[in-house]
Description:
Elements lengths: L5 E5 L9 H15 L3 E4 L5 H9 L8 E6 L13 E5 L2 H11 L2 E4 L4 H15 L8 E4 L4 H11 L13 E4 L2 H18 L5 H4 L4
Parallel strand pairs: 1-2, 1-5, 2-3, 3-4, 5-6, 6-7
Helix pairs in contact: 1-2, 1-6
Amino acid sequence: MDTHYRVAIFGSARIKEGAPDYEDVFNIARRLAEYRFDVVTGGGPGIMRAANAGHKSIDSDAHSIGLNIQLSFEQQANRFLDEEKNFERFGKRLDTFMSLSDAIIVAPGGIGTLLELFYTWQLVQVEHICETPIILFGDIWTGLLEWMKDRVLERGLFNASDMNNIIPLDTADEVVDMIKRIHDDRITLGEVCVNYEKYRLR
């Protein structure tokens, strides 16, 4: 069985090379490759390209994986993929993300990134996947978390414990250090989360 530790990186297709968010994600993925962790992205431009390019910028036996969606705009596979799979529907693509990923990094993004965030969060909440850590990278998510706590949680529409898997972090170093710590803790405890064993379509 393939036991590579895999980290999904979600984020906007619209962020250009050279932008601070692009460079941060490039460096995150590069360091993940140094630890021999696979990365899984949507395979397209923007933050996805940054992650795949950063991952391939060093010599590593880790895999740079792209799950590409066929769209009439924006989405073309980037050239930094070891493995690529194409999808016509978002639902099946999201399920594949969930089946492959041991940890999630949510970089700045728009509606598509929010879909990926909440889909992951929902599956963790209902225990359709392992307790997958969801790292929200950057201060763009501060207002969303405040709204969730002050407006949604305050009305009792979800449980405070549902916030346990959400980890807001501000710097690339913090993100990589957290991923490494989670991985090492799971190895030590003998509880490596491999979602494709537990995940079930219901």
